Structure formats: C-alpha cells, structure tokens
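Question: I have long wanted to understand how a fold can be written as tokens. Here is the record:
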Amino acid sequence: MKSFQNKVAAITGAGSGIGRALALNLAGQGCALALSDVNLAGLAETAKLAEAKGVKVSQTKVDVASKDAIYAWAEATAKEYGKVNLIFNNAGVALGAAVDGMKFEDFRWIMDINFWGVVHGTQAFLPHLKASGDGHIINISSLFGLVAVPSQSAYNASKFAVRGFTEALRMELDMADQGVSSTCVHPGGIKTNIARAARFDDNMKALIGQDADQGKAEFEKLFITTPEAAAATILKAVRRDSRRVLLGPDAVAVDLLQRLLPGGYQRLIVLGTKLRMKKN
C-alpha cells in the first residue's frame, strides 16, 4: 500500500494517544476514517479534528472485548463506506500485578482487551480487507511483547500473544497472496495516558518496592516518544509492508538486549529492580 489517498481505515482506541495520532495523520493524507473507542468524549474530539481535514469520518462506541460489537462495527463500516482497507487494532490497557495474588478478574480484563480485542478486530475485518484487494492489518503489541518484567506478567502475556498471533497471521497472508498484509507494532514508551488508566494491585509494593501511584509515575518516566512520531513510523512501515516495527529508541535498545542476552536480560532486570528497592 503505497498511498492512503481514497482508502478507508478503521481504528480502535481512537479517542486518544496513538489512535488519535493515526487518525489525524491518515486524514491529512485523504483517508476516510471509521473510528471507535469506549471513551466517547475523546472519540468525538478525534472525529472533530479529523473532519476538519476534509475527509469522511464515522465514530462508534465499541468495546473490543465484545466479539459481537466488533463484528457489527466491521459490517456497518463496510456497508457505509463500500470498502475497508486498513484495520488498526490499537485499543489497549495496562495492569501492574504480581502473579502471586493477581485477581483473575483483572487478568481476564486485560486479556479480553489487549489480546482478544486484536483477534476479534482481525477476524471481523479480514473478509472486508480481502474484498478491497488492497488491505492491511496493523496489530499493536508492545516493548513488553519482546521482553518480560516483574509486575507485568499479565500485560506481557497479552502482548507476547499479540506478537505470536500477528507473526503467524502474516505468514498465512503471504501464503494466501490475496492482497492483504499485516504488521506487528512494538511501541516503547509512548506519551499516552495508558499508565494513568492502568490497574495496579495491592501487592505491587511488596514485589518491586512501589505502590500504585509510584508504579504509575515510574511507568510514565519511560514515555519518551510522542504519539505523532509513533503514528508516522507506523504508517511508513505499512507503506513499506514491514512485518514488524519498533517504536522509539527504547524499543530498539531493548530488542537488541533481548537478542544478545535472551536469558541473561532477566537477571539484569532483577538486579536493577532490587537496587531500586534498596534506594526506596
């Protein structure tokens, strides 16, 4: 896909962050938009900003954890626009919790959104992308889909799952050769509100020496890349038909660390966490 002009893109989690930045970048390139989020105020603001660029925009409240909701949205989008070329499975949440004592409800919550939301979005839109003859699936994993860290086991599980799912999907699409491709995106620290909206359990302090507020503050210190820069990199990767894209210098550095020390990086993280706990 060399151009987004006159294409139709569906974006989940479009009410803020990377989702909003993608919407505005695509709108500036003449791409029509079908936007969704559970945050209606944020969604309306994104739609307003995108419409000002002169493209058609629709907005729908969609909980990506609901298979029925995503399938209904996909059908409605294809009917309204006549085609769909891109689906950005971007919606996601965070959870800080130790494996020992993690609430099942929290684990299920994050997997339903981060993993099953990606699966639902991919399967719901795939037939429409094939029908367009020029389609692309963009699934958002994470830096934590490359390496694991203490207190993030559930988030790691969801993002590692997205990575495996999308890499297998890409191979299947290559074999089918039906005009559809996919890209797995691994953002590092992006300046979004995901940390403030995250769930943190009561055992965080015992695990890594931080309570919920400290954990969120530390998490936000990792945010070094703007959503606008992230969106530009993602769209460049789509045009290049990249299989994988790393967002931010932190993602690049951690990917290199994992490649060089696939087992040893864990010891380094444990050591760093223990040293921080002593300081606290």
